[in-house]
């Protein structure tokens, strides 16, 4: 018996890899800009924040929940962090991360508490908190953006740069490294720790999870809290990326990320989904819009194509499972 | 049997694992349990028998710490008196339950399910694949069984899932193991294998409490039967010398006569005739006839193709070849709507998820197949017609309801099954297919359901009664067909065959 | 005393509790604003409420039916935009400001047809492929927004004949025209849901689609029609929005999307599907509108109202939770059988 085995990639993930590979191949041939260092670095920079959100959301989806509020929660965290570091006299990256993660966790914990202690289902809770977070944020900030963030926060930390043939600098910025860390941590949490197995179990069979003695309350706080932390840190990075804090900048991002994660094979209802899938889902959407851009398609058409891509993907994956392709389930074994 | 007898003699010497004294439990004003004593010794196999609502599940929930008993109750574990029992302490003491629904995690692998206990707690720990596999392999080796460790549980057959659930309980080294209806969805061979495993566990010193509706098994496996009725203990009885009939009487407090009801219907007009009906991988070359007023039994092991055949007759699937006719007319159904239109009704085996729309009202469930009949002016539902129709069927089948607007899920299993019958009778069918109509129905209520069914046959309806409980078809059907591997392999007439002969043929 | 408790118990147990409760909350909100804001209890306020309510109201009705069927239609707002765009395009083809009533009628017809087609496509995917409605409607939303952006290039489309504004701003016997349209649609939805086969099927399949199919109901057709109907109602909402703003812009009413879901839940619609009443949802809408209008009069902006709406939904859900526990305690005290309650709905959610 082999002790170590390569993880088997199957189902949606395998399918996505094929599609992405085909797209990369096509774009590589059709454009001379796609497969350049600067474009690939650009892809990473552009998708970093959505990836941070996506792996956080995955934890909630795996546990059988859904969260609509995390993107506006990220905006709330941006403001709270900005206010706090101002109070604390400037702060630093370390403080910024700690505060963003802390505030994010608290907002996630509000969701978890309402879901667990009052037995309200997650979509109702998070639609309510979505409105609470966003409404009060816009009310108290009067919709005013913050431009005078502390220097450390606005500092474009460049982790790696290289001069391309055209003389331009291609660079990888801080959000990418943070994204890598968050993806890794999520992977550890969801796939490598006992907690992750319990999250799957909870999403898979809530009654069974209760009976076997899983601490359901703890799992809710882990899932929504982790998404909160990811949202907070994603918010911190988004402000660094766009160099300002705009209260409604992330409004609407929740559905975009949700679509990407579910595209990546996470099941609404729980029990299924992988970090790899979530990353691939975001990658597919990012590469699609990047490719359209490079092909010279008008930006106005991007959303339409992305919507179509997801729609086709849903139809394709469900055609397989619905048995309309003529497979017959063998009842007898 | 000699095996059981051997254990019996040893029982006196075995120390008691668990003793429950004066257990009472009230919910609101209702007493679910009254002064029940229960005890079990190391290595003993005991059976807890009683109808739905007799207090079995409340008792299990008290032992597993889900509910707290009232008043002067006393729980002793290994002779030591316990204070408050919580689910966690119960597990730590070694009380494990295998629930009827198994409570497994379908998307997790076999190894992960079996080794799940290692995952518990919210202090972060590595979940190592190797550790799971080791735990799982250890338990499987102990039972001398094999399972694919890395397969998600959802890809396993039901019997294998049952084994996974047992392994998961064993992985925690339990002292007392409760098994709630473990054989409900197993075939005879699988059940036998399971009972062997249970005996093996008992030899290893585990106390096993078996909860089952199937009285034959109860008597076969257990040394002692504890009977509960209406929340009170009727008594402890030695399994040896106990008969099924006596046990039924103890559980229900009523006496039942099993008698063969078969009549000869061979000159009545044919209602349904199938001719070489085949659906590849499901059933093959099925040619049967059912006559007016006839109850045709169809039995065979789980997976013999019975339910699949019913699905085709009800228009849910289409045959690959062969044909069937209803009342002499050749039929071809695109969907079950055509079948209903033609006069075929189907009471599915799975009442909870297919037979009824559980959370919806009794009234809506009854009118669902006959919406056309309650349409009034302008294509709108006529409430008065609806109420009349619903009232008629509730009366006719003596369904005990509070209000027709109550959710079906609030009814007992027996009354739910009456609602299912009512909804199909409202369509005035020529042929009624009943697929395992008594699963989850009390012994007492079963007799009432068969009385209704026989009444319908008497009134001229053709009935196809599918069941893997041989006594059920033997006593109630006019003819019994035996299906194996998708083919009809035998026909029996209850008046000309003994039940033992039929059982022998089916289980051969 | 005991008698009083019993009577209260009967009310709280009854089917009308949602409506009674929501009506009480509405009265409370009206009184509170009436006391604090002198200008609140005037005809003008109610008229302005009556002009604003229909947009959100129609979109909520478009959301209600899919939720009852156990799904969700996240594409309602952009469906409304696209349908409005179809109407605008028809009007422009027939001369923009000079277009006649016929062109308008044609445009309305085409807009409704567009809504029907959009809904039907979603319905077909949900019903025949079993894809998750959230996902299907979400991708349809992204797609429609993209189509709209491509057509309008992010700009406004305006220049409609003068009579179009009557639809958005006119009154009949002091009752705003949009409100009349909303009431008609709400009544129609109520009738469809309570008295027709489609409505019956919607509730049943919202609870358990397989069992409904076994009962001989054409679940695939019904589920498809649920989304078709949702699309048509969204189209009506789009037409009203066009006439209210006298222009079409992709993203008009976008902020309403999650509010429509909120309004449904507030109105007691079961998030898992199968249960919910149009009347309660309309009451919930009036409460939301009253809060928003009242705050507006007090000088606060819409965002505060949005935040309070969310807080209000949480409060209502917590009250419902308390009421549910109380009822369960009562039921187990009153029931003659110690049987455990039926399995919780969590199982059902997983099954989807």
- Could you tell me the mean pLDDT of chain A? 86
Choose one word for the global shape of chain C.
Answer: globular
Strand content of chain A: under 5%
| Helix content percent band of chain A | 55-70%
Low-confidence regions of chain C: 335-352
Strand order of the largest sheet of chain A: 1-2
Largest sheet of chain A: 2 strands, antiparallel
Count of helices of chain C?
15
H/E element order of chain A? HHHHHHEEHHHHHHH
Oligomer: heterotrimer
Question: Could you tell me the radius of gyration of chain A in angstroms?
Answer: 21 Å
- How many strands, what sense, and barrel or not for the largest sheet of chain C? 2 strands, antiparallel
Structural write-up:
The complex is a heterotrimer of chains A (333), B (508) and C (352). In chain A, 68% of the residues lie in helices and 3% in strands. With 333 residues, chain A is mainly alpha-helical. In chain A, helix 3 packs across helix 5 (122-141). Chain B has helices spanning 2-10, 56-63, 87-93, 110-114, 129-143, 158-170, 188-203, 215-221, 244-252, 306-313, 336-342, 351-355, 362-367, 383-396, 413-425, 443-458, 470-476, 499-507; strands spanning 16-27, 30-41, 45-49, 74-77, 80-81, 95-98, 176-180, 207-211, 224-229, 232-238, 270-279, 283-286, 289-291, 295-299, 321-326, 329-331, 344-347, 431-435, 462-466, 479-484, 487-492. In chain B, the strands form four sheets. In chain B, strands 6-7-8-3-9-10 form a six-stranded mixed sheet, with helices on both faces. In chain B, strands 17-18-19-14-20-21 form a six-stranded mixed sheet, sandwiched between helices. Chain C is mainly α. Chain C is built from 15 helices and four strands. Chain C has helices at 2-13, 17-36, 43-68, 76-93, 101-129, 133-152, 163-169, 177-195, 197-207, 209-214, 219-245, 256-266, 278-297, 302-334, 346-351, and strands spanning 157-158, 171-172, 175-176, 247-248. Chain C starts with a helix and ends with a helix. The model of chain C is unreliable at 335-352 (pLDDT under 50). The interface between A and C is large, with 59 and 57 residues.
Element layout with pairings:
The complex is a heterotrimer of chains A (333), B (508) and C (352).
Chain A: H1 12-30, H2 37-62, H3 70-87, H4 93-117, H5 122-141, H6 151-154, E1 158-163, E2 169-173, H7 174-192, H8 194-204, H9 206-212, H10 216-242, H11 253-263, H12 275-294, H13 302-322
Helix pairs in contact in A: 1-12, 2-7, 2-8, 2-10, 2-11, 2-12, 3-4, 3-5, 3-10, 4-5, 4-10, 7-8, 7-10, 8-9, 8-10, 11-12, 12-13
Chain B: H1 2-10, E1 16-27, E2 30-41, E3 45-49, H2 56-63, E4 74-77, E5 80-81, H3 87-93, E6 95-98, H4 110-114, H5 129-143, H6 158-170, E7 176-180, H7 188-203, E8 207-211, H8 215-221, E9 224-229, E10 232-238, H9 244-252, E11 270-279, E12 283-286, E13 289-291, E14 295-299, H10 306-313, E15 321-326, E16 329-331, H11 336-342, E17 344-347, H12 351-355, H13 362-367, H14 383-396, H15 413-425, E18 431-435, H16 443-458, E19 462-466, H17 470-476, E20 479-484, E21 487-492, H18 499-507
Parallel strand pairs in B: 3-8, 3-9, 6-7, 7-8, 14-19, 14-20, 17-18, 18-19
Antiparallel strand pairs in B: 1-2, 1-4, 4-5, 9-10, 11-12, 11-13, 11-15, 15-16, 20-21
Chain C: H1 2-13, H2 17-36, H3 43-68, H4 76-93, H5 101-129, H6 133-152, E1 157-158, H7 163-169, E2 171-172, E3 175-176, H8 177-195, H9 197-207, H10 209-214, H11 219-245, E4 247-248, H12 256-266, H13 278-297, H14 302-334, H15 346-351
Antiparallel strand pairs in C: 1-4, 2-3
Helix pairs in contact in C: 2-13, 3-8, 3-11, 3-12, 3-13, 4-5, 4-6, 4-11, 5-6, 5-11, 7-11, 8-9, 9-11, 12-13, 12-14, 13-14
């Amino acid at each position: 018996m082999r002790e170590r085995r390569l993880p088997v990639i199957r189902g949606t993930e395998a399918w996505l890899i094929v599609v992405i590979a085909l797209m990369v191949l096509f774009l590589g041939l059709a454009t001379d800009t796609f497969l350049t260092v600067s474009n690939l670095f650009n892809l990473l920079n552009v998708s970093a924040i959505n990836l941070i959100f996506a792996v956080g959301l995955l934890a909630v989806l795996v546990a059988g929940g859904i969260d609509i509020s995390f993107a506006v929660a990220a905006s709330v965290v941006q403001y709270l962090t900005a206010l706090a570091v101002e109070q604390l006299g400037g702060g630093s990256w370390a403080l910024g991360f700690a505060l963003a993660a802390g505030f994010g966790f608290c907002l996630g914990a509000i969701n978890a508490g309402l879901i667990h202690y009052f037995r309200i289902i997650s979509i109702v809770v998070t639609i309510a908190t979505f409105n609470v977070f966003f409404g009060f944020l816009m009310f108290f900030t009067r919709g005013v953006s913050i431009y005078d963030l502390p220097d450390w926060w606005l500092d474009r930390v460049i982790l790696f740069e290289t001069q391309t043939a055209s003389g331009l600098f291609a660079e990888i910025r801080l959000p990418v490294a943070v994204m890598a860390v968050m993806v890794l941590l999520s992977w550890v949490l969801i796939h490598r720790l006992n907690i992750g197995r319990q999250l799957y179990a909870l999403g898979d069979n809530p009654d069974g999870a209760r009976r076997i003695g899983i601490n359901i309350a703890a799992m809710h706080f882990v899932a929504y809290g982790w998404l909160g932390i990811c949202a907070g840190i994603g918010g911190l990075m988004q402000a660094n990326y766009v160099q300002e804090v705009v209260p409604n900048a992330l409004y609407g991002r929740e559905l975009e990320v949700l679509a990407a994660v579910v595209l990546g094979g996470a099941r609404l209802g729980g029990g299924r989904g992988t970090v790899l899938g979530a990353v691939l889902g975001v990658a597919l959407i990012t590469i699609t819009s990047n490719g359209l851009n490079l092909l010279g398609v008008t930006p106005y058409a991007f959303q339409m194509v992305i919507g179509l891509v997801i729609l086709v993907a849903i139809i394709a994956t469900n055609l397989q499972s619905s048995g309309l392709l003529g497979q017959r389930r063998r009842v007898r074994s | 049997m000699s095996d059981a007898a051997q254990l019996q003699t040893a029982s006196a010497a075995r120390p008691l694992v668990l003793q429950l004294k004066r257990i009472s439990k009230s919910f609101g004003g209702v007493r679910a349990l009254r002064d029940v004593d229960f005890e079990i010794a190391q290595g003993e196999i005991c059976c807890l028998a009683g109808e739905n609502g007799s207090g079995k599940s409340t008792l299990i929930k008290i032992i597993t710490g889900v509910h707290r008993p009232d008043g002067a109750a006393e729980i002793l574990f290994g002779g030591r008196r316990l204070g408050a029992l919580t689910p966690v302490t119960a597990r730590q003491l070694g009380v494990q339950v295998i629930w009827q629904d198994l409570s497994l995690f379908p998307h997790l692998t076999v190894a992960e399910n079996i080794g799940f206990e290692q995952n518990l707690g919210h202090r972060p720990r590595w979940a190592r694949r190797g550790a799971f596999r080791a735990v799982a392999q250890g338990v499987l080796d102990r039972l001398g069984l094999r399972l694919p460790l890395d397969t998600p549980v959802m890809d396993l057959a039901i019997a294998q899932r049952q084994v996974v659930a047992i392994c998961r309980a064993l992985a925690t080294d339990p002292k007392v193991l409760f098994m709630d209806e473990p054989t409900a969805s197993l075939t005879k061979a699988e059940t036998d294998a399971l009972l062997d495993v249970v005996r093996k566990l008992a030899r290893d010193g585990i106390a096993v409490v078996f909860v089952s509706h199937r009285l034959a098994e109860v008597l076969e496996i257990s040394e002692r039967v504890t009977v509960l009725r209406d929340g009170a203990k009727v008594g402890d009885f030695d399994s040896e010398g106990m008969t099924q009939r006596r046990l039924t009487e103890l559980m229900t407090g009523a006496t039942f006569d099993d008698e063969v009801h078969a009549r000869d219907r061979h000159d009545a007009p044919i209602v349904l005739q199938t001719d070489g009906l085949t659906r590849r991988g499901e059933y093959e070359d099925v040619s049967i006839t059912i006559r007016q007023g006839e109850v045709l039994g169809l039995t065979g092991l789980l997976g013999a193709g019975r339910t699949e055949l019913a699905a085709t007759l009800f228009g849910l699937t289409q045959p690959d070849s062969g044909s069937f006719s209803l009342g002499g007319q050749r039929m071809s159904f695109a969907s079950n709507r055509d079948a209903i239109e033609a006069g075929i009704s189907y009471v599915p085996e799975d009442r909870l998820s297919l037979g009824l729309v559980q959370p919806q009202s009794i009234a809506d469930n009854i009118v669902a197949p006959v919406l056309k009949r309650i349409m009034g002016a302008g294509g709108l539902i006529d409430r008065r017609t609806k109420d009349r129709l619903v009232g008629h069927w509730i009366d006719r089948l003596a369904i005990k309801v509070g209000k027709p607007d109550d959710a079906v899920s609030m009814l007992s299993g027996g009354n739910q099954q009456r609602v299912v019958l009512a909804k199909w009778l409202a369509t005035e069918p020529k042929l009624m297919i009943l697929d395992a109509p008594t699963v989850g129905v009390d012994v007492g209520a079963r007799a009432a359901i068969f009385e209704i069914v026989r009444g319908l046959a008497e009134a001229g309806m053709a009935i196809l009664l599918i069941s893997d409980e041989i006594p059920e078809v033997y006593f109630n059907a006019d003819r019994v067909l035996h299906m194996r591997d998708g083919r009809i392999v035998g026909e029996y007439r209850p008046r000309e065959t003994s039940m033992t002969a039929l059982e022998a043929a089916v289980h051969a | 005393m005991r008698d009083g408790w019993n009577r209260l118990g009967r009310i709280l147990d009854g089917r009308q509790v949602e409506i009674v409760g929501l009506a009480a909350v509405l009265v409370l909100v009206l009184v509170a604003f009436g006391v604090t804001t002198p200008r609140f209890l005037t005809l003008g306020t109610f008229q302005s409420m009556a002009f604003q309510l229909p947009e959100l109201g129609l979109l909520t009705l478009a959301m209600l039916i899919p939720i009852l069927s156990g799904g969700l239609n996240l594409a309602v707002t952009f469906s409304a935009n696209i349908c409005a765009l179809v109407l605008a395009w028809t009007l422009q083809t027939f001369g923009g400001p000079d277009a006649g009533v016929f062109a308008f009628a044609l445009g309305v017809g085409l807009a409704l047809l567009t809504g029907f087609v959009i809904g039907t496509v979603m319905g077909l995917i949900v019903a025949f492929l079993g894809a998750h409605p959230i996902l299907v409607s979400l991708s349809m939303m992204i797609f429609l927004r993209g189509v709209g952006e491509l057509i309008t290039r992010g700009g406004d489309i305006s220049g409609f004949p003068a009579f179009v504004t009557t639809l958005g701003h006119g009154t009949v016997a002091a009752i705003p025209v949009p409100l009349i349209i909303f009431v008609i649609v709400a009544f129609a939805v109520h009738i469809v849901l309570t008295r027709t086969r489609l409505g019956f099927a919607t509730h049943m399949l919202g609870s358990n689609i397989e069992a409904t199919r076994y009962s001989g109901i054409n679940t695939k057709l019904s589920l498809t029609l649920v989304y078709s109907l949702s699309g048509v109602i969204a189209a009506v909402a789009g037409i009203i929005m066009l006439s209210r703003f006298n222009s079409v812009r992709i993203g008009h009413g976008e902020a309403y999307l999650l509010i429509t879901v909120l309004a449904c839940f507030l109105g007691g619609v079961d998030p898992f599907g199968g249960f919910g009443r149009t009347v309660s949802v309309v009451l919930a809408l009036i409460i939301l509108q009253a809060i928003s209008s009242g705050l507006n009069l007090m000088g606060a902006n819409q965002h505060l109202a949005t935040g309070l709406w969310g807080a209000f939904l949480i409060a209502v859900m917590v009250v419902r939770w308390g009421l549910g526990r109380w009822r369960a305690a009562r039921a187990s005290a009153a029931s003659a059988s110690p049987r455990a309650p039926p399995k919780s709905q969590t199982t059902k959610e997983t099954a989807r």
